[in-house]
């Protein structure tokens, strides 16, 4: 299941767990890691056996963003085309996270900087260790926030906080991120693996079609009128209503037993 040296992948109870695995660099992103993550997310999108994704990091950090040793000015002749690396690696990762119609959970186990922060924030549910920090580190190296950061931060926090975080590159403690509504919640670092896994398994055992359609509807909401959203809800509810999991959910309620969803 797409297991590589820099990205560990396991499938268990319908949860595809992806662990960024370069702990000696706080899981800084290399081109190889980007390729591996894209391949794993494509599996998550296409394989019916995957009903939820759990993204996390190995060691004390979640992800320190782009591996800067790959950008060493001493090892190149001219300026790099960073637009090209965004197009090849970072943008596909964010597009996949947002378009996979299954829950994507991020367990932020430690510092999340640069692209690492914004990939985490692109996920559907973010649960973080209370020791974690989110850092828009880009301005410290003369770059702008990417991986959708300018979009995500502005939508979720408003311009005042988005600009302050991006322009100053000051760390945002995970508890403050939760209080501001940037992530779902925090928990003690020691509890994070168990809590995140339990959440991912619960969602993987859920009505996958309905969860995927819910994700699509919520993501569409910010870009359209209430009228258009009501039309979208009508269309998506029509689709959800035809699913085997809807029939199972109603039958289980009437029979006073737990529902056994199959994701169909
Ligand atoms: O280039 C493009 O394609 C455009 C896209 C860019 C996207 C981006 O992500 S740009 C932002 C890149 N990331 C950064 O600028 C963050 C750099 N790292 C840091 O500022 C700090 O490491 C942290 C604040 C994240 C954590 O600080 P701390 O004190 O907890 O740990 P540390 O000691 O700085 O790091 C531990 C090790 O990881 C250290 O190695 P060493 O000295 O033990 O051998 C450090 O060099 C290494 N490391 C941390 N971040 C990176 C890294 N190595 C390579 N690249 C990194 N980004």
Automatic annotation (TrEMBL):
<keyword id="KW-0413">Isomerase</keyword>
<dbReference type="InterPro" id="IPR029045">
    <property type="entry name" value="ClpP/crotonase-like_dom_sf"/>
</dbReference>
<protein>
    <submittedName>
        <fullName>2-(1,2-epoxy-1,2-dihydrophenyl)acetyl-CoA isomerase PaaG</fullName>
    </submittedName>
</protein>
<comment type="similarity">
    <text>Belongs to the enoyl-CoA hydratase/isomerase family.</text>
</comment>
<dbReference type="InterPro" id="IPR014748">
    <property type="entry name" value="Enoyl-CoA_hydra_C"/>
</dbReference>
<dbReference type="GO" id="GO:0016853">
    <property type="term" value="F:isomerase activity"/>
</dbReference>
<dbReference type="InterPro" id="IPR001753">
    <property type="entry name" value="Enoyl-CoA_hydra/iso"/>
</dbReference>
<dbReference type="InterPro" id="IPR011968">
    <property type="entry name" value="PaaB1"/>
</dbReference>
<dbReference type="Pfam" id="PF00378">
    <property type="entry name" value="ECH_1"/>
</dbReference>
């Amino acid at each position: 299941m797409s297991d590589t040296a820099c990205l560990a992948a396991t499938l268990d109870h319908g949860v595809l767990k992806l662990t960024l695995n370069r702990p000696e660099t706080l899981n800084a992103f290399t081109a190889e890691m980007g390729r591996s993550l894209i391949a794993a997310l494509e599996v998550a999108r296409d394989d019916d056996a995957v009903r939820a994704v759990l993204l996390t990091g190995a060691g004390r950090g979640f992800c320190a963003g782009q591996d800067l040793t790959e950008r060493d000015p001493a090892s190149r002749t001219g300026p790099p085309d960073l637009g090209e690396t965004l197009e090849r690696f970072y943008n596909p990762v964010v597009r996949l996270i947002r378009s996979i119609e299954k829950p994507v959970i991020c367990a932020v186990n430690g510092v999340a900087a640069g692209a690492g922060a914004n990939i985490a924030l692109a996920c559907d549910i973010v649960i973080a260790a209370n020791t974690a920090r989110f850092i828009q580190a880009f301005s410290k190296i003369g770059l702008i926030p990417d991986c959708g950061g300018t979009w995500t931060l502005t939508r979720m926090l408003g311009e005042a906080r988005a600009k302050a975080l991006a322009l100053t590159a000051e760390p945002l403690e995970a508890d403050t991120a939760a209080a501001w509504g940037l992530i779902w919640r925090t928990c003690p670092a020691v509890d994070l693996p168990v809590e995140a896994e339990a959440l991912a398994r619960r969602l993987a055992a859920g009505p996958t079609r309905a969860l995927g359609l819910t994700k699509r509807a919520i993501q569409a909401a910010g870009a359209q009128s209430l009228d258009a959203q009501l039309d979208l809800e009508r269309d998506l509810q029509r689709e959800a209503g035809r699913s085997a999991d809807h029939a199972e959910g109603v039958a289980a309620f009437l029979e006073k037993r737990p529902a056994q969803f199959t994701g169909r």
